[in-house]
Amino acid sequence: MTTHDNVVCTFCGCLCDDIEVEVRDNTITAVKKACAIGKNKIMHATSDPPPISVRGVETSVDEAVEEAVRIMSTARNPMVYGMSSTTSEAQREMVEIAEITGANLDNCSSYCHGPGVLARQQVGLVSCSLGEAKNRADLVIYWGCNPVEAHMRHLSRYSLQPKGLFMPEGRKGRKVVAIDVRPTPTTKRADVFLQVQPGHTFEIASVLRALLNGVELDFPDGADSVAGVPVEAWREVVEMVKKCKYGVLFFGLGVTQCRNTDINVEQVARLVQDANRHTRFSAVAMRGHGNVNGTNQVMSWLTGYPLAVNFSRGFPRHNPGEFSVVPMLARKEIDAALIVATDPGAHLPKDAVDFLKTIPVIHLDPHRNMTTPWATVVIPVAPVGVAATGTFYRMDNVPLRLKKLVDSPFPTDEEVLKTMKEKIAYAANN
Amino acid sequence: MGSISGLLVTVRTAKQGSEMVTSKHGAPYLAEISTLRIHPDDLSAVGVEDGGPAVLASPHGEVRVTCKGTDVPKGLFFLPLGPVANTLFSAWSTEESGVPNWKRINVSLTPCDETAEADNTGQGAER
């Protein structure tokens, strides 16, 4: 039996890097320190792979790759999409395939935290590492997120309970505010819970900015509440912000997917900037999939844009709402799709999935999922962080190197994509 | 007793995340993503017992859900992200943002027959 220490869990953006995994005869037999989701993910990492297939007929990897190359080489307006749960090395290959084929290139963040990424490009974001939050934060705000259920060890490792260099008392030294539309296990851990009406993120950020900047509020109709919460409560939050030594705001999809999407996050980012006139204050997006942040990083390095890129003119053009995956599928504008490390059958609206079922779809994933039953070409791959190495970006933009713990009978995403890229480039040049 | 309207908000749950990484074709995953959290008063208004079935409908589709009375605001319904919830959304309704209205779509909830056949897993079916 071999015990691997400091293994990185690849489920969510926390990328907890202290996991212990026991391996016996190339099989994972125990997982320690991980959360319930991370433990299940690692224990089932190599189970239930789909058969290698082309149009439902089992075949070899080589023949599946040949068919995938044929599809991508002959498509007039293909899409390359996904990437959120694979390595940045594989993501780089996907960007190159998209460029060679003149494809539309998008990642899962375009319908999750993408609005926040766009906002950061517009107004910037004062941010910090999770280590700084652990060591310094005496005020923590959770806004539109529920880490107790979605990022299970976030509170214990980074933001709420841990004792840090300047936080020797851990939880006792911290004030915690939660803003959400409903009570959650996270809001129950907060000192102050502000239950707001849905769809009012922009107004909340605006009133907080106004109060922070000393603007006198005027409610001509006599109302004295914003998003269903009395202004006095918002005033108390602002006083907590002014008095803290180091505050961190963690925001989730409740902010980015709220009405107005990126405009909300712009206003939240400006709120954080304003808070820095009084104290030290940062914000961190609660990224979901393990390396969805890496897709934004890699696409930004290589194309200049974090999502929704079109290569049809030979150079990258960027327009969310036009070149991002959901509207492209709504307009039925693509005629083939290369989808890696995501499961559109489970994650996209039904009419988008119904259209995908009518065009050739190449799908790379370690597991049988809601897309593999109907994808044209299915190539199972080695699960990253368990049977493949590579780089993942944590939610605070810190890159971590993944370990290989067991051997897999399947190639890695990176290997398959590199082979596809070389064959597509050869076909394009001959 | 009868149909009621409200705003559907999709959410993550611990069980949904845990079962999703175990198997998306497993019964626990399908049961969790079909479980609707609503206020007990709304449950009474629609005439469904805690744990009973109902049909949740939007302008884009309808699904059968299992209702669970929970401490949530009246008029707001919460369903875990997944292929069941996604039946109720359209790729057209992104308001040019590229983001479907996963936190804000108007839906109606209607009681249904206990023995009615559920058709919530169509997205994973072969074409």
TrEMBL record, chain A:
GO terms for biological process: methanogenesis; respiratory electron transport chain. The keyword Oxidoreductase applies. Gene3D superfamilies: 3.40.50.740, Dimethylsulfoxide Reductase, domain 2 (3.40.228.10). GO terms for cellular component: membrane. It is an enzyme of class 1 (oxidoreductase). InterPro entries: Formylmethanofuran_DH_bsu, Prok_molybdopt-oxidoreductase. Keywords: Oxidoreductase. GO terms for molecular function: formylmethanofuran dehydrogenase activity; NADH dehydrogenase activity. Its EC number is 1.2.1.2. PANTHER family: FORMATE DEHYDROGENASE H (PTHR43105:SF14), RESPIRATORY NITRATE REDUCTASE (PTHR43105). NCBIfam families: one_C_dehyd_B. This is Putative formate dehydrogenase. It comes from Pseudodesulfovibrio hydrargyri.
From TrEMBL, chain B:
It holds the Pfam family Molydop_binding. It comes from Pseudodesulfovibrio hydrargyri. Residues 8-104 form the Molybdopterin dinucleotide-binding domain. The lineage of its organism: Bacteria, Pseudomonadati, Thermodesulfobacteriota, Desulfovibrionia, Desulfovibrionales. This is Molybdopterin dinucleotide binding domain protein. Coiled coil: none annotated. GO terms for molecular function: molybdopterin cofactor binding; oxidoreductase activity.
